[in-house]
Write a structure and sequence with these properties.
By secondary structure, the chain is an alpha/beta fold. The chain has 3 helices and 3 strands. A 3-stranded parallel β-sheet has the order 1-2-3, with helices on both faces.
Length: 100
């Protein structure tokens, strides 16, 4: 819960075609006055310019969408757990800051 009556859905990367479809589904399905959608990932080597453009297009089209691209963690961790933890942390932090 970010502000009273607003729920934030934080989706962590990577930004695959499936992930873009899920984001589009949430943005079209839920009321923008009650639901914010945040995509969070790192700006490592798997983030390509066309995918970054998709995030910018979604942000321009939907006022209830934001994305966080934080630096990659210094240590990956087992099964990339540090990437997952940091993506969740930065996405939640952005949701609180942007939609509060």
């Amino acid at each position: 819960m970010v502000r009273s009556g607003l729920v934030a859905v934080v989706i962590k990367g990577p930004l695959l075609r499936f992930t873009v479809n899920v984001i589009a589904f949430y943005l079209s399905r839920f009321d923008s006055n009650t639901t914010a959608v945040v995509f969070s990932h790192n700006n490592g080597s798997c983030l390509k310019k066309p995918r970054e453009a998709v995030l910018q297009m979604l942000a321009a089209k939907h006022s209830n969408f934001a994305s966080s691209l934080a630096p990659a963690p210094p240590v990956e961790g087992y099964n990339f757990r540090n990437f997952q933890r940091e993506a969740c942390y930065y996405g939640t932090l952005l949701a609180v800051q942007r939609f509060n």
